[in-house]
Amino acid sequence: MTERLVVIGGDAAGMSAASQARRRRGADDLAIVAFERGQHVSYSACGIPYLVAGDVTDPDDLVARHPAEFRERQRIDLRLGSEVTSIDTDRREVLVRAGDREYREPFDQLVIATGGAPRRPEVPGAVSLGIHGVQTLEDGIRLLGYLDRHGPRRAVVVGGGYIGLEMAEAMLRRGLEVTLVDAAEQPMRTLDPDMGALVADALREEGVNLRLGETLRGFASTGGRVAAVHTSAGEIPADLVILGLGTRPDSDLARAAGIEIGETGGIRVDRRMRTSVDGIWAAGDCVETFHLVSQRPVAIALGTHANKQGRAVGINIGGGYATFPGVVGTAVSKLCAHEVARTGLSTAEAEAAGFDPFSVVTESTTRAGYYPDARKIKTKIIAERTSGRLLGAQIVGREGAAKRIDALAVALWHGMTVEEMTSLDLSYAPPFAPVWDPILIAARKAAEALAARSVG
After folding, report:
1. pLDDT at 452
2. Cα 132 vs. chain centroid, distance in angstroms?
3. Is 46 an active-site residue?
4. What is the pLDDT at residue 210?
5. What are 240's strand-pairing partners?
6. Going by C-beta distance under 8 Å and a sequence separation of 6 or more, which residues neighbour residue 295?
7. pLDDT tier at 454 (50, 70, 90 boundaries)?
8. Which of 57, 89, 99, 179 is deepest in the core (most CB within 10 A)?
9. CA 384 – CA 344 distance, rounded (Å)
10. Across the chain, what does the average pLDDT equal?
11. CA-to-CA separations, 32 to 42, 63, 253, in angstroms, rounded
C-alpha cells in the first residue's frame, strides 16, 4: 500500500524533506503532496536584499529549483497558491484553501515547514501603501514594483538587525536617502554594545541617518500612501518604509493542532526532527532548536539550518537515520564595504546561561599590512574565565573580515579553549592574512589575559 506524505511549506526545509524522501523511496511506495501558499518554491530569501539592490537582476536567479522539476523529475505533487489552514491529528488530514475552494487532504506522515512569521508593528497607519516587509520572494518583487512605479526619494528602515542593515544598503545603492530607526541604543542587538557601536559608525559613514533609542509610534499617510514615520522622538518624512523587525517561528498551525510548542515559541522537536505527535515532523524557521554552547533552546531563522533540518527529515522518512544536533549561532551580514559576523554567545547571553565570561578585543588587518587594500578588522573573543573555553566571537571589519568567523564557529563546535586556538594551523599569504591571522591574535590575547588572571 502506498504511504502518503504531506508537506506544508515549499521553501528550504519543506522541499529538502520532500526531495530526500523521494530519493530514498519510489513513487509506488510513497506519494508526496506539498502545499505552498505563495507562487514560488525553493528560493533564497537571503538573496532578496541583493535583488532589490540590483546585484541580482532577475528574481528567477534566486530560485534553486522550479516547480516543474519537482513535479516532473521527482514526482512530487506540488500545489502552489494552496494554504493549509488546519491539521487534524486524529483523522490524519489537513484542511487546504486554494482560492475559493476548500478541501481535505489525508496523510500518513506530515512535515510542517511553515517558516517564520514576520513581526509587524501594531501601530496606527501600518497598512498604508509603501510599507513593505521583505520576507518572501513575492515581497521582494512587490517592493521592486513599488520602486519602479513611484520613484521614492526617502526610505526609512525600521529595525537595525541583519535585514535592516542589508535593506539600508539596498536603498543606498538605489540612490535613496536612508534613515534607520531602532528602539535599541545600538544596532545589531546580537552583538555586544562595543561591537554594535562599530556597526553604528559604519552606518553613519555610509550616509545612513541613524535614529537609535527611538520607539516606533505609527505612520502618517497622504492619499493612503505612507508619508512619514512617527517615533518617540518626532516625525521622519518617508516615501517608502521597509520593516526589518525580524521574525518569530510560525508555529500557530501546529499549536492549534495540539502539537507541543517550546519555550521560544517554536515547534518542539527531537534530534531527528520528530514532533510530539507520531508521524508528524517539523523543520526550518518554525521549529525550536538547541544551542550547543548555552545548552538551551533557541529559535534561529536561517536557510542553512532549514536545509539541514529538512534533509534530516527526508532521510528519516525515507528509512534512513539522520539527526540535527543543534547550532552555535553563526551569522554574517554586510553594509556596503563593512562586514559583520558573530558566532556563539554574546557577553550578556553567556552570563544568562550561567557562565562567568571575560572578553578581549583586538585590532588587526585582513591582509599583510604592506599588501594593497589591507583593511582593518576588529575581533572580539568571549571565553569562560575558569576554563578558557571559547564561548563566542564577533567580528566587524571590511572586505575579508566576516568569513573568518567560520574558523571560530568550528572551534566553538569542538569546545576548544583559547589556549588551544593559539596553535591553529591557519593559512597565510600576504594577499589573504598577516603572518598572525586576526583570529590567532585574538586567541593569544585572550589566553594571555587568562594566564595573567591565574597568576594573579
Report:
1. 81
2. 18
3. yes
4. 97
5. 155
6. 353
7. low
8. 179
9. 12
10. 96
11. 16, 21, 20
Q: Which three cell numbers stand for residue 354?
A: 550561567
pLDDT tops 70 at residue 455: no
Terminus-to-terminus CA distance in the chain, angstroms? Answer: 72
Closest CA to 199 of 374, 346, 338: 338
| DSSP bridge partners of 222 | 225
Query: What are 292's three cell numbers?
Result: 550547543
Q: Shortest CA distance to 242 belongs to which of 139, 148, 341, 122? A: 139
Mind listing the pLDDT tens digit for each residue in 9-63? 999 999 999 999 999 999 899 999 999 999 999 999 999 999 999 999 999 999 9
Q: 3-class SS at 407? A: helix
Please give the Cα distance from 267 to 232 (Å, whole number): 35
Dist CA 337 CA 234 (whole Å):
31
Take residue 260 and report the three cell numbers written for it: 507541543
Please state at what angle helix 162-173 crosses helix 193-205, rounded to 10 degrees. 10
CA distance 267 to 365: 43
How confident is the model over 123-153, as pLDDT tens digits?
Answer: 999 999 999 999 999 999 999 999 999 999 9
Q: What is the pTM of this model?
A: 0.95
46, 197, 292, 332: the catalytic one is: 46
